[in-house]
Amino acid sequence: MCGIVGYVGRQSAAPILFEGLQHLEYRGYDSAGIAVLDRDGALAVLKREGKLRDLEASLTEMPRGSAGIGHTRWATHGPPSERNAHPHTSAAGEVIVVQNGIVENYRELRAELEPGLAASGRSWQSDTDTEVIPELIARALADGLSFRDALAQAVGRLRGANAVAAVYRREPGRIYAARQGSAGGIIVGFGEDEMFLASDLPALLRHTTSVYHLEDGDIAEIDADGVLVSRGGAPSFAPQPTQVNLDPVAVARGPYRHFMLKEIHEQPRALSDTIRGRARLSPPRALPADLTFSELALRNIERVLVIGMGTSLHAAMIGRWWIEQIAGIPADFDNASEFRFRAPLLGPSTLVVSVTQSGETIDTLGAISHVRERWDAPQLTITNVEGSEATRQADASIVLRCGPEIGVASTKTFVGSLAALYLLACRLGHAQGRLSDAELSGRLEDLLTAPSLVERGLQLSDRCASVMRQFTAASNFLVLGRGIEYPLAMEAALKCKEISYVHAEGYAAGEMKHGPIALLDDGFPVIALAPRGPLFDKMMSAIQQVRARAAPVIAVGDAGDAELDELVDHFIGVPPTSALLTPFSLSPVIQLLAYHIALARGLDIDQPRNLAKTVTVE
Ligand code: M6R
Questions:
Q1: How far apart are CA 85 and CA 377, in angstroms?
Q2: With 90 as the cut, is the pLDDT of residue 331 above it?
Q3: Shortest CA distance to 261 belongs to which of 592, 612, 597, 602?
Q4: Residue 379 C-alpha to ligand 1 middle, in angstroms?
């Protein structure tokens, strides 16, 4: 995933573009670039490999020009380098383009365009798929098309999902944008005598809250006075902006050292916002407004399939547990990227629930359309982004209201997704008559304690830091859990891998003796998630087996659990809670353990290598 910005107005474009890119750096950060046109069409392009700060040093060299586009890259085709950084320019230097997405047929297009390039004594300037786009536009212009039509024709020839922004030297007071499929979206921002373009709202908020989201197939022609959109063959129209209700403070790091830490600490508030109005106690009702399915449809659900990727998949695994335990409905989970290429047996009585904080993850969107194309199964999506592609494709949505999540590691949206899944289990159980009013009330009252469980978990930050400082040099961790804590063990391991670059595996504790135990010795630390619950004794046996191999054990269990504390090397006590609510008491601790080891190792926590916040490419 990459970040795109654009500006046209009366001010100097380069600093505005750069500032916008700073808010999009979470989307990609291996190289960046800016192109600016002055009033006479003189073009200046600045590109650098590395983070935005590497571009910043040369920003003062950029001439003043009041229209331009910018890009921050997450490499797909060709390694991170200045040569592959966007913007890319047509061979004749007239058409300048930035892109987010993948041109799946770029090889064919290159082969088609190559003879023309060679005849004019030119060759490709990068390894990217992007470079075919300015060339296709240039060809269409040479055939006599207007720039807008040339852009539409070029984008129409691309396979895959793409968002494109472009400038044309012969039209210096204009920027263009196109959206084809779901490529993380592209938004037009409305100012006073100036207009903006960005892949995501945080890049716009300092300038405007008046926006228009381009739809699939839209071509936007933007100048300082407004935007005209063309869609299909219909006449162009001036879209009405909508107002976004988002505070610029929500996208600022504030006093926190990292966005991840800020977002970990925002969890009690984020959880309360997710739950607000959705856990009504009298008369008891879960999700009174979000599930737009009829009561009859809810009663007829015979099976639930929960899908997602990464952290969202771990939330899906916990959701499966709750749907079985609370609603008493058969439930499964699946990895969306695998599910979409299988031929599972679904039908109109299977509810498919997709979990995706961004609502734009390509694997999850692929799975949603796989379901839509093959089965008449009802679909619900759980996402943090209102209006995201997942909300457009599913039949109903639960929008989390966690506020923007900027850190690459999902934290507050994980606990938000958990709350939504718990509420869903309650609603289904009640709709199907398996939960009485009183039982539903009790379950909802339990959930209302979740924000305070998380709050108390956050108070363990110093303890997590002091434990993890002792393992700064560890190259491996095994994380064990059972039952509802097993997906949490996987989530803890994922967090360690992605921000600390420590190899970590999350395992069901019962599985350990079937292989992984061979790895253990005194240099292989094990994190055991062992709150008191139905499987506690089995966890204790697994911990004994680990101890017998001399591996150091860090246990996360109920505060005051002297038996566990005595058995292990390091004990972290979380607030005791009911067996179904441990995901809320344990989540902040597993996040903080990973955060503090990354911090002790001096790593770039908000922008871990090779990753991007939203994965919009295959
Ligand atoms: O936006 P989504 O929830 O669909 O994203 C899915 C995964 O890419 C995401 O959870 C990823 O694993 C996170 N970086 C984990 O912290």
A1: 42
A2: yes
A3: 592
A4: 20
Residue 2 a catalytic site member:
yes
CA 383 to centroid of ligand 1, rounded, Å: 11
Categorize the per-residue pLDDT at 584 as very low, low, confident or very high, splitting at 50, 70 and 90.
very high
The average pLDDT across 244-270 equals 88
What's at 592, amino acid-wise? L
Tokens of 94: 């007239």
613 is catalytic: yes
Beta strands in 102-174 (DSSP E): 162-168
Within 38-140, strands assigned E span 43-49, 67-73, 88-89, 95-101
Say yes or no: CB of residue 384 within 6 Å of ligand 1: no
* CB of 361 shorter than 6 A to ligand 1: yes
The predicted pLDDT at position 429 comes to 98
Q: What is the pLDDT of residues 187-244, one digit of tens each?
A: 999 999 999 999 988 899 999 999 999 998 999 999 999 999 999 878 899 999 999 8
Domain 261-448, architecture per CATH: 3-Layer(aba) Sandwich (3.40)
The answer, yes or no, to whether any atom of ligand 1 lies below 6 A from the CB of 367, is no
Q: Report whether pLDDT(110) > 80.
A: yes
- The pLDDT score that the predictor gives to residue 183 is 63
Cβ(100) – ligand 1 distance below 6 Å: no
Query: Is 63's pLDDT higher than 90?
Result: no
Instruction: Provide the pLDDT for residue 170.
Output: 96
- Could you tell me if 431 and 440 are in contact, meaning their C-beta atoms sit under 8 angstroms apart? no
Catalytic residue among 2, 402, 426, 496: 2
Question: Would you state the pLDDT for residue 53?
Answer: 86
CA 413 to ligand 1 center in whole angstroms: 9
pLDDT of residue 184: 63
Q: How far apart are CA 83 and CA 48, in angstroms?
A: 9
| Sign of torsion over alpha carbons 344, 347, 349, 352 | positive
List b or e across 350-364, with b for residues whose CB sees 16 or more CB atoms inside 10 angstroms.
bbbbbbbbbbbbbbb
**CATH architecture for segment(s) 3-244:** 4-Layer Sandwich (3.60)
CA atoms within 13 Å, Cβ hemisphere of 496: 27
CATH 3.40.50.10490 location in the chain? 261-448, 458-600
Q: Is 408 in the pocket of ligand 1 (CB under 6 A)?
A: yes
Is 358 a pocket residue for ligand 1 (Cβ < 6 Å)? yes
Domain spanning 458-600 has what CATH number? Answer: 3.40.50.10490
Mean pLDDT, the chain, as a whole number?
Answer: 94
Backbone phi and psi for residue 175, each to the nearest 5 degrees, phi listed first:
-125, 155
**What pLDDT, on the 0 to 100 scale, is given for residue 611?**
82
Comparing CA positions, the residue from 417, 374, 449, 385 lying closest to residue 613 is 385
Cα radius of gyration (the chain): 26
Cα(410) to centroid(ligand 1), Å: 6
